[in-house]
Specification:
This protein has 13 helices and no strands. The chain is mainly α. Belongs to the glucose-6-phosphatase family.
Length: 329
């Protein structure tokens, strides 16, 4: 399937890579969260909550299911000795975690369910048109198919991994979006963040004690990736873990500093969105030292603690002070 996709659509390579970047779990925190938050506070908090929990569950599933990835399985399976598939790898191909279920498909299905259900309800409340309010759900299906095909195109996943991720993500999106921890105390978020972090580390240590080598996928990724520079530490399983736990703690801190967030009219909200997006872009581009790995993961954790502070507290607060002062003047 990947060979056929590459053969027929190689001229659209850049489009596939853009789609796979949009489906990256990281985009849920840095792109979808701020856009959704300034449209609807509750939906924005739900996106961050659902993204963190669904990506954490995806990590646990991957450790349990030992899914292969096509880019290394082609060589490891030895089924293609006589005829090598005519396929290429890309800069986004060489992820180091196990392959099943697809994290891109799972997190995309979970967070975009929050977005489209909010948008669908908003459109119906304004227009009372079933057809118009159903449009976001159609776009949701198109997006899931596009993200799934982009993952197959770049040899990151098999079709069954994409389907499993999409179905699991959809179920999580429906369940978790009904239980958004809005207005919960800081202790709740601290407990959830540290509980997930310590629980996962204990699970990792326990599986290793049982003789399970959880670094097997990293070894294979390094062995079969076309270019060494495409192996990045921010695609490793522990990067997902620290991102999720950091974002959850950051969400708790943001609600602690400013319960309920800042109330802004539409124009200041748009300005806040623009400034927040620029701020998160530069935060994401901050280079982190990859050695020692403990330092990298600690700084990666702090980076995602900062993300909710920027979107919920700092930027809207500055915009509020500026616009409020201007009105008083």
């Amino acid at each position: 399937m990947a060979e056929s996709l590459q053969k027929r659509t190689m001229s659209q390579e850049k489009i596939w890579l853009v789609i796979t970047h949009i489906g990256d779990p990281k985009a849920a925190f840095l792109l979808v969260f701020p856009f959704t938050y300034f449209f609807s506070k509750r939906a924005g908090l739900a996106v961050l909550w659902v993204a963190a929990i669904s990506e954490w569950l995806n990590l646990v599933f991957k450790w349990m299911l030992f899914g292969e990835r096509p880019f290394w399985w082609i060589g490891e399976s030895r089924l293609f000795v006589n005829r090598e598939p005519n396929v290429l790898q890309f800069s986004s191909t060489c992820e180091t975690g196990p392959g099943s279920p697809s994290g891109h498909a799972m997190v995309t299905a979970a967070i975009w369910w929050v977005v489209v259900s909010t948008l669908g309800s908003f459109l119906y409340s304004r227009t009372h048109s079933v057809v118009l309010s159903a449009a976001p759900y159609l776009l949701y299906v198109v997006m899931l198919v596009a993200v799934g095909m982009s993952r197959i195109f770049i040899l990151a996943h098999f079709p069954h991994q994409v389907i499993a991720g999409s179905i699991t993500g959809f179920i999580l999106g429906v369940i978790l979006s009904r239980r958004v921890p809005e207005g919960r105390p800081l202790l709740f978020f601290f407990s959830v963040s540290m509980g997930l972090l310590l629980g996962t580390l204990l699970l990792h240590a326990g599986l290793q004690q049982l003789g399970v080598d959880l670094s097997w996928s990293i070894t294979l990724a390094k062995k079969w990736c076309s270019r060494a520079e495409w192996i990045r530490l921010d695609t490793a399983p522990f990067s997902s873990l620290t991102r999720d736990c950091g974002a959850l703690l950051g969400l708790g801190l943001a609600q602690y500093w400013k319960p309920g967030g800042w109330s802004l009219p539409w124009a200041p909200r748009a300005l806040s969105l623009a400034i927040s997006s620029m701020g998160l872009y530069h935060i994401n581009r901050l280079p982190l030292p990859v050695r020692p790995q403990g330092l990298f993961y600690s700084l990666f954790f702090i980076k995602f603690v900062i993300v909710p502070q920027v979107v919920i507290v700092l930027v809207p607060g500055l915009v509020y002070l500026f616009t409020h002062k201007k009105k008083k003047d």
